Amino acid sequence: MSTPSPSAGRPRGAAVDLGLTPRAADPTEEEALEALEGEIGPTGRPRRHVPDPPLLDRHGPATVLAMCNQKGGVGKTTSTINLGAALAECGRRVLLVDFDPQGALSVGLGVYPHHLDTTIYNVIMERQVSVQEVVQETSTEGMYLLPSNIDLSAAEVQLVVEVGREQALARALRPVLADYDYILVDCQPSLGLLTVNALAAAHGVLIPLECEFFSLRGVALLIDTIEKVRERLNPDLEITGILATMFDPRTLHSREVMARVVEAFGDIVFDTVINRTVRFPETTVAGEPITRWAPRSAGAKAYRALAREVIAR
Question: E.C. number, please (predicted)?
Answer without folding.
Answer: 3.6.-.-
